[in-house]
Amino acid sequence: MNRRAFLLLATAGTFGSALGVNTLMQQANATESRKGVLTMPATTLYSASDNPAGGHFLTRLDLANGQMQSRAVPMRGHAVLPLTHGRVLLFGRRPALECAVVDWQKEISGIPATAGRHFNGHGCLSAAGDVLFTSENAYDEKRGVLGIRDSKTFQHLGEYDTCGLDPHDVQLMPDGKTLVIANGGIEQHPDFGRRKLNLDTMQPSLVYIDAASGKKIDEYRLPDHHLSIRHLIATADGNVGVALQYEGDLYRQQPASLVAWQDKGGDLQLLDISPADVALFNGYMADLAYDPRQQILAVSSPRGNHTSFWSTRERRFLHAHPLPEPSGVSFLADQQQFLVSDATGGIHTFASTYQPASASLLHHYPDTLWDNHVVLS
User: Fold this and answer.
1) Which keywords appear in this protein's UniProt record, sorted alphabetically (predicted)?
2) What is the DSSP string of 162-194?
3) Which of 9, 175, 280, 371 is the 20 to 30 Å CA partner of 356?
């Protein structure tokens, strides 16, 4: 299906088809889960994982009884997206030429990248749930794109330009009409693996586009072009939190901050932190989750071996707690706790509070190396 046919479907109502109340509620809960906020009691955790021998898996964990099930996948995974009918989509870690669709009762199937593209680790669904958007790199053309696919058959329908290089995370905003994209700004090519080819000239950006047409709505940049915009969280109020990774020389200077926040309709602003505190994170932030009641943002730093907590109300860093390579983060609204995985197999919880609080170990699996993201359902 070409782009014109895709746009005709969108105009005809593919993105906004009428849904029953129960379906809408299920999709709302699933959307909140993908954003790192779970409003219903969590029962199951999904995450990419590795084992000490280097095997790659999609893992699901029953949080109540600790029972775990893993399925081997052909590539290292990154973000996870639950689909309908018990299927789970595992996005390949950049630069990936495939993603994996896991049905726990059937064979694993793959989604190949289109010619001249590779996957960049993330994706999201349209408001109606029928269209899948995937962050991709058009490497020979040196531009970022969102792949557009049917969410049931994964047929490729077209693509949008992300108006920047290296799109990584992408989220659907709560209006159901707007996509927010983290353009990391880094040029890459599969011939060079994960090598970064343009650090001197990189230009990260936070871009909003119309989900039905691909038209750019707005674009934001930070003063320091070495702060790569990597991961996002979009709140129910339309605010956006950003986790950053510093591509400058840490031996010469520390970045001003590694977390940014944007109130709906406002500017993208770095959250305040002292030079001594920002040095804890070794220039690298990964996953993030949000407590809307306390207005606290939790962000993991696997390279800094700390989980950090930030006040979006006061626009500042609060405190950090050491963990061995903390990875995925989600918020358990019913318990007022953040859940954090780590690279040694630990699953921890932290109370959501302005005061420092120690981690509580919930489960531990010594042979499981959790990857950067967790999804709860």
Assistant:
1) Signal
2) -SSS-EEEEEE-TTSSEEEEEE------GGGTT
3) 371
